[in-house]
């Protein structure tokens, strides 16, 4: 399955792959014929003092050498073209596959793991493919051709080659069996190292502000040293290949010299034929060495190929239905007895990791000795984070959502644009189940400003046009005015053409939030979801944004998730969530009377604490 999955990505580079094989075969033929020409020069030319034959066979050798050089050049050229194109296709296919993943698919792979698969793993497979179409064709062909020619020259001397091949075959099996396990363990550690790098670079400002450079250096060096140790172990097996190979070559030469000298004295072999056998001995040994290196490379890439195939074969959990609905009638939202969980996160145990094995053995020993009276239980992530959610929102309503940390406010909103699917019950937008919509149509009608705001490298206008790639500058300006972003953009050095660094590192948190809100407004959505996206904005600006929403997009259904009562109290209705369940759903005034959690939060924030989790749990 892995090979079948990857071989599909050769695509337009099949011709280059075939031509590489053809030229490799031509190169081998020339190399096999060269020793025969040398034998003719020695036996027919030098021994008989025939200068004409020496020149004739010499010219033939030069021509064959030039042909071999030409064939080798084109073999390398087409192999490089095929392997590089193969790798490019794999990366493109993986990237496209990732783009179609739902959130639940992405949850299976870490960001660092996906980066490793797109870089290191693809490079390993690329090198292995080039080795296959070059070495795995050239080496066996050379080996068989040299053996056949040796048998034709002297059958009984060829026994030396068969003994050498048998010995090296046993050695190769031993090396590969150990190297395979070692290299498989190495690549599982790359994800840990890349995760360390990514985490450090992303949070470099925090690292510096807390003066944790030494700690991060130590953590990275530990991860790098683990890979170093495992690579040394893996390479130590591979390195034994070369000295054993050379020992076998010299043994063959000594055996041929001893036996060949007797045959020459007895008249059963000519000096030219013995010289040819020496050449074929080198060809056979070099072919075996090339094969062993190719097998090692293929072994190294086996784990990489499997990891790549996991991404390519991963089926998006959310797909477009047959006969999908292509338009959203309005912004009404209905939840009917909805339950939702993220599923149980399962990670296979890496039995080749010595650290994991050591830990498992230690825990098992403690368990047998009765020392683990209260063993740590693995967190069951399959439990429902939303339970029995039923609510009905009319189109154009402003709905405030409030709840403590972990009350699943974001999870609830993720079900509306179908970033996740509910486990039970139904979610409807515009009176139609979200599972019946074409995904693009649904998500174009729902704008989500996520809790973690993301800006991309490019100008302000380029970032805004993520919401609508055809938006005019005037439309972008209007959206920014509505999001209270126009004032600070105008103060930037180049206004709307100011360059935003990767991740929005050259703008403040509040500015980033307002740009993301403006970007969402450019979609002209029927539903707007603000997931705590004004938390870094002062209360006065927050009030201005909410006022703009009421005046500029009155027909858009708005969900405002917030920890501040002041941000949601003017909403048409407010949803109070508590541990994934609806605790209350009413107006601000009614909730103050009927909902104890909401009332305690409001009183606490009025007293100046401003902390939902703290104030909401004092009396609730």
Give the tags:
single chain; 620 residues; alpha/beta; ABC transporter transmembrane region fold; Rossmann fold; 3 domains; six-stranded mixed β-sheet; 22 helices; disordered C terminus
Protein model, in words:
The chain has helices spanning 2-7, 14-46, 51-99, 103-108, 111-153, 159-202, 204-209, 213-239, 241-266, 271-313, 354-368, 409-414, 439-444, 460-464, 473-482, 486-490, 509-521, 539-552, 565-568, 588-594, 596-606, 612-618, and strands at 333-340, 386-393, 398-403, 424-429, 432-433, 446-449, 458-459, 499-500, 527-531, 557-561, 573-578, 581-586. The chain is of the alpha/beta class and 620 residues long. The protein folds into three domains: 10-313, ABC transporter transmembrane region fold, CATH 1.20.1560; 332-345 and 376-445 and 526-620, P-loop containing nucleotide triphosphate hydrolases (Rossmann fold), CATH 3.40.50; 448-524, P-loop containing nucleotide triphosphate hydrolases (Rossmann fold, 3-Layer(aba) Sandwich). Mean pLDDT is 82; it is low at 344-353, 370-381 and 613-620.
């Amino acid at each position: 399955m892995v090979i079948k999955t990857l071989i599909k990505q050769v695509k337009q580079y099949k011709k280059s792959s075939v031509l590489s094989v053809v030229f490799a075969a031509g190169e081998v033929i020339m190399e096999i014929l060269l020793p025969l020409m040398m034998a003719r020069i020695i036996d027919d030319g030098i021994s008989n003092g025939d200068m004409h034959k020496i020149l004739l066979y010499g010219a033939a050798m030069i021509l064959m050498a030039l042909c071999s050089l030409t064939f080798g050049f084109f073999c390398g050229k087409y192999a490089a073209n095929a392997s590089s194109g193969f790798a490019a296709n794999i990366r493109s296919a993986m990237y496209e596959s990732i783009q179609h993943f739902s959130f639940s698919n992405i949850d299976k792979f870490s960001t660092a793991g996906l980066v490793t698969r797109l870089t290191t793993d693809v490079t390993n497979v690329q090198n292995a493919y080039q080795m296959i179409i070059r070495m795995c064709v050239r080496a066996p062909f050379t080996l068989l051709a040299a053996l056949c020619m040796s048998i034709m020259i002297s059958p009984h001397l060829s026994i030396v080659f068969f003994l050498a091949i048998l010995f090296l075959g046993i050695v190769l099996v031993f090396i590969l069996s150990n190297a395979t396990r070692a290299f498989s363990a190495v690549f599982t550690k790359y994800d840990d190292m890349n995760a360390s790098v990514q985490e450090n670079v992303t949070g470099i400002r925090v690292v510096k502000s807390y003066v944790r450079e030494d700690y991060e250096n130590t953590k990275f060096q530990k991860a790098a040293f683990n890979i170093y140790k495992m690579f040394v172990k893996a390479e130590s097996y591979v390195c034994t290949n070369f000295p054993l190979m050379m020992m076998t070559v010299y043994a063959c030469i000594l055996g041929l010299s001893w036996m060949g000298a007797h045959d020459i004295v007895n008249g059963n072999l000519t000096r030219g034929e013995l010289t040819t056998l020496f050449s074929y001995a080198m060809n056979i040994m070099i072919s075996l060495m090339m094969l062993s290196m190719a097998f090692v490379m293929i072994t190294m890439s086996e784990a990489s190929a499997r990891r790549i195939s996991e991404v390519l074969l991963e089926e998006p959990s959310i797909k477009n239905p047959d006969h999908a609905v292509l338009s959203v009638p309005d912004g009404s939202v209905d939840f009917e007895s909805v339950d939702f969980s993220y599923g149980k996160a399962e990670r296979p145990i890496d039995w080749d990791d010595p650290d994991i094995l050591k830990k498992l053995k230690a825990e098992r020993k403690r368990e047998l000795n009765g020392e683990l009276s209260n063993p740590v239980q693995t967190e069951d992530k399959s439990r429902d984070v939303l339970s029995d959610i039923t609510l009905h929102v009319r189109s154009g309503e402003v709905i405030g959502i409030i709840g403590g940390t972990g009350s699943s406010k974001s999870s609830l909103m993720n079900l509306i644009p179908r970033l996740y699917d509910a486990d039970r019950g139904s979610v409807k937008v515009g009176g139609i189940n979200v599972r019946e919509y074409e995904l693009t149509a649904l998500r174009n009608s729902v704008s989500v400003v996520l809790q973690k705001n993301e800006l991309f490298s490019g100008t302000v206008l380029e970032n805004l046009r993520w919401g609508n790639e055809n938006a005019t500058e005037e439309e972008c300006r209007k959206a920014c005015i509505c999001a209270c972003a126009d004032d600070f953009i105008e103060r930037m050095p180049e206004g709307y053409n100011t360059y935003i660094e990767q991740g929005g590192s050259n703008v403040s948190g509040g500015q980033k939030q307002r740009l993301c809100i403006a970007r969402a407004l450019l979609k002209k959505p029927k539903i707007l979801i603000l997931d705590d996206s004004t938390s870094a904005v002062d209360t006065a600006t927050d009030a201005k944004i909410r006022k703009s929403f009421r005046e500029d997009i009155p027909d858009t259904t708005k969900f405002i998730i917030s920890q501040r009562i002041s941000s949601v109290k003017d909403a048409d209705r407010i949803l109070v969530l508590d541990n994934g369940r609806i605790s209350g759903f009413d107006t601000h005034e009614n909730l103050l009377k009927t909902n104890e959690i909401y009332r305690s939060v409001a009183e606490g924030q009025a007293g100046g604490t401003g902390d939902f989790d703290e104030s909401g749990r004092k009396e609730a």
